[in-house]
Amino acid sequence: MADQNEQATEAGEQEAAPFLIHGQYIKDLSFEVPNAPGIFGKMMQNQPDVSVNVDVDAAKLSETQFEVTLKIRADCKVGEDVAFICELAYGGIFELNVPAEHLEPMLLIECPRMLFPFARNIVASTTRDGSFPPMMLNPVDFASMYRARLEALQNQPEAGQA
């Protein structure tokens, strides 16, 4: 077995890894508390309402390299008053050596799945540092998001149809 690997390496026939992460980073981070300091007292008296929106974008950098951006927006309100708004765009550079039919699912399911734990930690730390309880995001089903995106694209009327 070792001889076969050595022979493949010597012959230059070694296959590239199907999936590599070259880096990950915060592209954009915003945290706003527009109604401070009064909102902290209101939060002690009333239960906040939190909404979270997650989206994924992918951009081709080269033949096999892609940037995947996980976008998270969390809005917290107490009644009609905004407690905080947290927006994060967390990016990763991925090298994908997969067949073309697997490329889109890798970019929109597997890559964001790899980025999510790091983005989740950033959101939790940011809300905690903003004097709120740390916001622990629930796991995201990126496969369901991908299927919903495909379904929405299939249901769009074709260009030129009225």
Structural class: alpha+beta
Order of helices and strands: HEHEEEHH
Largest sheet: 4 strands, antiparallel
Shape: elongated
CATH homologous superfamily annotation: SecB-like
Cα radius of gyration in angstroms? 21 Å
Helix content: 25-40%
Uncertain residue ranges: none
Q: What is the third-level CATH name, the topology? A: Bacterial Protein-export protein SecB
Number of domains: 1
Q: How are the strands of the biggest sheet laid out side by side?
A: 1-4-3-2
Number of strands: 4
End-to-end Cα distance: 62 Å
Instruction: Provide a count of the helices.
Output: 4
CATH class: Alpha Beta
| Beta-strand content bin | 25-35%
Description:
- The chain is an alpha+beta fold and 162 residues long.
- It has one domain: Bacterial Protein-export protein SecB, CATH 3.10.420.10.
- 38% of the residues lie in helices and 35% in strands.
- It contains four helices and four strands, in the order H-E-H-E-E-E-H-H.
- It has a four-stranded antiparallel β-sheet with strand order 1-4-3-2.
Helix and strand topology:
Elements: H1 2-10, E1 19-32, H2 38-45, E2 49-60, E3 65-78, E4 81-96, H3 100-129, H4 142-155
Antiparallel strand pairs: 1-4, 2-3, 3-4
In a few lines, what is going on in this structure?
The chain is α+β, with helices and mostly antiparallel strands and 162 residues long.
Provide the descriptors you would attach to this structure in a database record.
162 residues; alpha+beta; 4-stranded antiparallel beta sheet; SecB-like_sf; unfolded protein binding
